[in-house]
Amino acid sequence: MLLSSLLGFWLPVVSFGAPVQECRRLFERREWRTFSNEEKIAYISSVKCLTAHHHERLSYTSSGILMPGSRSIYDDFALTHDMLEDFAHENAYFLPWHRYFTYLFELALRDRCNYEGAFPYWDWSLDLFDMKSSPVFDPDLTSGLGTNGDCISTDCFIHDGAFGDVTLAYPIPHHLRRNITFDDPATNRSLTDKLSAEHLFDIMRDTTGDFFTFQHRFSHVHNNLHFIIGGDMDSECPSKYPKEACDLTSFASNDPLFWLHHGQIDRIWSKWQSLHPDNFYAFQGYPLNTHNLSDSRYDPEASVSQKLDFDRLSTSVAVSQVFNHTAPPFCYVYVEH
């Protein structure tokens, strides 16, 4: 991370002899459907710019093998998400870790690709009753994020949108894959039910001051959207990848929709934080998966002093440093649509 990037977001200000950090600019995060065509093109171009930037680290797989193919900074985000999957999911660190991870992606867009526009989020609750017609599923080759993958004649590759021609490196070189479904094949229940604004409101209303219950219930909402998109977004491995290794991978950030989804996830956490004074700095929890208990990086007491690791994308930061996204280093606000 370059110092110039951070200084572009905030400045140290001396107050009563002590340096105080202040944002020199608050960047906007806006719902994707409010973007003009030109704004969509600018954002998509910056993301594709990251796919063209050669990686700046040795991008090794979990087995210690150098990732094959042409590796980019964009691929490094997918690898980092995979390497820290256990640490950053199914525990109290899920929301703070992804807040900072998404911020690092936005920072890369601005620093490496000179992006100046708003960062997008996708309020999928607006598309509850006609998900396939959501503006995020746009086939336009310059301003669209693509539609569904072709799971009949190809390995669920998408062939339209601006990312149909992008080759992703992880877990093996392949094109972006999606396999959109709206029902859980195991239960035949709708996967979209939990995405409603009413359900989100119920979660936020019922969990005042109770971060553990909030993030526990909210994690199911998060998971369902990954299941709906399928393919890379659900870490479904390419058919040529060994099946025995597939359960050990998590490369959801290969899909550009990941960043819009996690913009929305962070927005909902931000709204919950603002609902009540007891919410803003609320943080407690217990691992939701036993693999966390044997992870030396994980504190089962869910301490705000716990350092969040981001592999080589960034130095570690404490949970206590990520509560306020309107302060440095974040300096962003959500614009309601």
From TrEMBL:
<dbReference type="InterPro" id="IPR050316">
    <property type="entry name" value="Tyrosinase/Hemocyanin"/>
</dbReference>
<keyword id="KW-0479">Metal-binding</keyword>
<feature type="signal peptide">
    <location>
        <begin position="1"/>
        <end position="17"/>
    </location>
</feature>
<dbReference type="InterPro" id="IPR008922">
    <property type="entry name" value="Di-copper_centre_dom_sf"/>
</dbReference>
<feature type="domain" description="Tyrosinase copper-binding">
    <location>
        <begin position="255"/>
        <end position="266"/>
    </location>
</feature>
<protein>
    <submittedName>
        <fullName>Tyrosinase</fullName>
    </submittedName>
</protein>
<keyword id="KW-0732">Signal</keyword>
<dbReference type="Pfam" id="PF00264">
    <property type="entry name" value="Tyrosinase"/>
</dbReference>
<dbReference type="GO" id="GO:0016491">
    <property type="term" value="F:oxidoreductase activity"/>
</dbReference>
<feature type="domain" description="Tyrosinase copper-binding">
    <location>
        <begin position="89"/>
        <end position="106"/>
    </location>
</feature>
<dbReference type="InterPro" id="IPR002227">
    <property type="entry name" value="Tyrosinase_Cu-bd"/>
</dbReference>
<dbReference type="GO" id="GO:0046872">
    <property type="term" value="F:metal ion binding"/>
</dbReference>
